Amino acid sequence: MIIDYYYKGVFMNKGLEEYIAKHTKNTEKSSSFVDYLYELMDKCGYDNPSDLYNKAFISRQLWSSLISNKSNPSLNVCIKLALALGVDSHECKYLLKKAGYTLSSANKYALIIRYAIENKIYDIFEVNNLLIENGYEDSILK
């Protein structure tokens, strides 16, 4: 049963309040891209951000822009971060989702990236070669 009421001049919907409370409990689902990235860094043992952005071949300037929310990461940047972190497919999915991306089964490029993540192929050069071997000249190293 949904109970509606007024509180301090605002119309409140009990069902909506419960829904919001339920979904904000899960930090994986409710956190921002930057918050989730830092959570993954902690989990994966990255104490120094420069270790991560260097491994992901991301410039310090781009990193600074991303973590200060001055720019949104590209799909390419998200993939490089996921590979550098060595995340599993679930964590990769959520990282990409936080940035507004997905790896669709209808896209061969995305399937190659998913294959690499699911098979723990985290070396960016190795993944890049898989892409080139399959006709993708626009590598993830650009």
Short description:
By secondary structure, the protein is mainly alpha-helical. It has helices at 14-25, 27-30, 33-43, 49-55, 60-67, 75-85, 89-98, 108-118, 124-133; strands spanning 4-7, 10-13.
Topology, element by element:
Layout lengths: L3 E4 L2 E4 H12 L1 H4 L2 H11 L5 H7 L4 H8 L7 H11 L3 H10 L9 H11 L5 H10 L9
Antiparallel strand pairs: 1-2
Structure description:
The protein is mainly alpha-helical and 142 residues long. The chain folds into two domains: 1-30, no CATH class; 31-133, no CATH class. Helix content is 59%, strand content 6%. The chain has helices spanning 14-25, 27-30, 33-43, 49-55, 60-67, 75-85, 89-98, 108-118, 124-133; strands at 4-7, 10-13. A hairpin with a 2-residue loop joins strand 1 (4-7) and strand 2 (10-13). It is globular and about 55 Å long. It starts with a strand and ends in a 9-residue tail after the last helix. 20% of the residues are buried. The mean pLDDT is 87.
Radius of gyration: 19 Å
Number of strands: 2
Helical fraction equals: 55-70%
Extract low-pLDDT stretches: none
Q: What strand line-up does the widest sheet have?
A: 1-2
Oligomer: single chain
State the major sheet: 2 strands, antiparallel
Average pLDDT, to the nearest integer? 87
Name the structural class.
mainly alpha
Strand content bin? 5-15%
Distance between the termini: 54 Å
Morphology: globular
Domain count: the total is: 2
Q: Helical stretch count?
A: 9
Order of helices and strands: EEHHHHHHHHH
